[in-house]
Amino acid sequence: MEDFLKKHIQEIINLTDDEFEMVASLFRKQKFRKRQFLIQENQPVKDIYLIEKGFLKSSFIDSTGKEHILQFAAPNWWISDFAAFFKQDLSSVAVDCIENAEVYCISYKDLDLLCTKIPKTEHFFRVKSNFGYIALQQRILSLMSKSAKERYEDFLQQYPGFIDHIPKQLIASYLGVSRETLSRLYS
Amino acid sequence: MEDFLKKHIQEIINLTDDEFEMVASLFRKQKFRKRQFLIQENQPVKDIYLIEKGFLKSSFIDSTGKEHILQFAAPNWWISDFAAFFKQDLSSVAVDCIENAEVYCISYKDLDLLCTKIPKTEHFFRVKSNFGYIALQQRILSLMSKSAKERYEDFLQQYPGFIDHIPKQLIASYLGVSRETLSRLYS
DNA sequence: CGCGCGATTGAGTAATTTCAAATCTAGTGG
DNA sequence: CCACTAGATTTGAAATTACTCAATCGCGCG
Predict the structure, then answer these.
(1) Using 50, 70 and 90 to split pLDDT, how confident is the model at B64?
(2) What's the pTM value of the predicted model, to 2 decimals?
(3) Pairing with B121, which of A81, A123, B78, B176 sits 20 to 30 Å away (CA)?
(4) Which of the nucleotides in strand C have any atom less than 7 Å away from a protein CB atom?
């Protein structure tokens, strides 16, 4: 039934059926429509979300009103305002749907409970966090050492499935350039 | 004896004396001198390092030969080529000392062992990883949404202890601007 | 004292932004 | 099925920002 969840977790750890029962019981399934917000600015962040279907983004509006994309999320990716979630603070980042989406979510309390009851799940989330860290580090290096064109080509190569689902202006914002500049890269 | 290590870990988890014995037995203490490398490019990365004394940096040399600072590390900070370490791959990042340093290090195998034997330590490293992720996310936002001057002022405010230990040209590289630009900010 | 390292300054150049307008496209309601 | 519209992309031109290259300056350490 919760086949998606099971497969996702078993890419990293092995769980018994009983253990998985507990895991599944702590996740809730939710559906959202395009342009709908999962998290808006300045609100408590209860959950982190694992995407089963659809595309989402997390973004930050700066003091001049410009939107900066922190993250895209495709199926099998996690998304939230992780800073606010882990510090149990108010959000400074918004999360919304680029396409209709179906997600599994888990609350801070339940995540904590899960990690305490089943240490293997704590391992799962440590590994996920490590890889998230590594990905962000790569992105910082890319922002600092590469031209807009190189960053765009790397993006296309690294996430070939994204281009068909995400408007170019959002990709521009993710890459840290204006949409005009991105548009001019191949002209 | 390993008082530093104990204090550092107990900021996040509580360990019994026996548990701490095991922890301490898996860390090794090392000393390095200014300009000495802990990790050089294209080598296996055996360890991650917790700084007791001194200042270090991790940096990446791009295709044009320019150095980009990924991270500084002061006492109580961890440093390594985390990407290479967690993927057990060759380093693409170098780690070296800005000042003479004393560090505790632990190998991949021992870290794994520790997390398996004492689940609380896995929690410790998950929390550390989460906070590392959050810090990198903040840095990405800063790189994308702020001017060089704002980034510099944020840096000074966020890490007031660093300015006395780290040459401005390295700070410039960390902030993603040329040393000349940083020098011109207040003129 | 001299050398190496770090910081500064100047001038010209390259890259990207901003603002404005035009064009293209996909989805929606009639 | 078409027309309309909002969203997305492209293009142009001017302005801005930061970079590069080069030279100079300052200083602490051996």
Answers:
(1) confident
(2) 0.96
(3) A81
(4) 5-11, 15-20
